[in-house]
Fold:
Amino acid sequence: MGFKAALKTVSKMEDSEKIIEKLKFNDDGLIPAVAQDITSGEVLMLAWMNKDAVKETLKTGNVCYWSRSKGELWRKGEKSGQTQSLAELIVDCDNDTLLLKVKQNGVACHTGRKSCFFSTAKNGELVENQKVITPPEELYGE
Amino acid sequence: MGFKAALKTVSKMEDSEKIIEKLKFNDDGLIPAVAQDITSGEVLMLAWMNKDAVKETLKTGNVCYWSRSKGELWRKGEKSGQTQSLAELIVDCDNDTLLLKVKQNGVACHTGRKSCFFSTAKNGELVENQKVITPPEELYGE
Structure:
């Protein structure tokens, strides 16, 4: 399904509470969410959501995570502009993991790379598999 | 990179200890691992690994997780035959999540579907987005 078709799905996700009821959150009230670029299929990142984050994501169509380090809602791209538009929210067989198919606006990684998965294990070393597209100073600078 | 080319990568991953040293495991000694089909790009599942699971996976090239419910190493496909052959192991920017590019032999999900992510949120309901390929009784039966 392309992004335009998928957007229709989002607009129909009005009943976020019914989805949230089906999900299994961990002891910290969180569920892992894997973001995948709906166009390229590239896996972009893994982050965590609490109930409020799932609710906001389903309501707005803009992906919102829970920042474990800051202890607050993390509206992806709020500072950097590198937002994620939700196309589909998919639940796994155990109802304890989410797959978010998204349109990634710009880059997903705070290092300025498209995906956070840029270090491939090879000969006991981690080898960079992608280049910086937008330098962090452009993403977070004045 | 195709699977045949990628297999070469695995054979060079002899120094698993050096990779494990770089990873951040959580308080339970675990790290989440996302498995993605290297051919189709489909996200298949998310499971967890401890150090021994990472080590075994890198050494054998067959994906081995840690079963949180059973508290033991989970050699994927050991009973069902639906093994995952590792092509690439990729680490994220925080060194606390793994992306496994794999050749999925058969189906990844215990329900007999290719991927565990088969329930799409739509109108407050979870709608099946893929069919069973191999019934569970064939996977786990006598």
User: Anything to note?
Assistant: The beta strands of chain B are 31-37, 43-49, 64-67, 72-75, 84-91, 98-104, 119-122, 125-128.
